[in-house]
Amino acid sequence: MPTTREKPGKGTYKCTKCGTTVHLDDNTDTLPPCPKCNGTNFVRIS
Ligand SMILES: [Zn+2]
Question: Are 12 and 5 spatial neighbours (Cβ–Cβ below 8 Å)?
């Protein structure tokens, strides 16, 4: 499961707490905390 501060690669990730999605445009982007609930656990959805 990708978590905040990892670099899981290009794609869209969904916060497991509130469902907010975060999009990473580049393989070097770091996954941020959820902008809505500050959650740190995500699942890859695309
Ligand atoms: Zn969230």
Answer: no
pLDDT in tens, 1-46: 999 999 999 999 999 999 999 999 999 999 999 999 999 999 999 8
Domain encompassing residue 27: 11-44
Number of compact structural domains in the chain: 1
How far does the centroid of ligand 1 lie from the alpha carbon of residue 42, in Å? Answer: 9
Query: 44 C-alpha vs ligand 1 centroid, how far in Å?
Result: 14
Q: Is residue 33 part of a domain?
A: yes
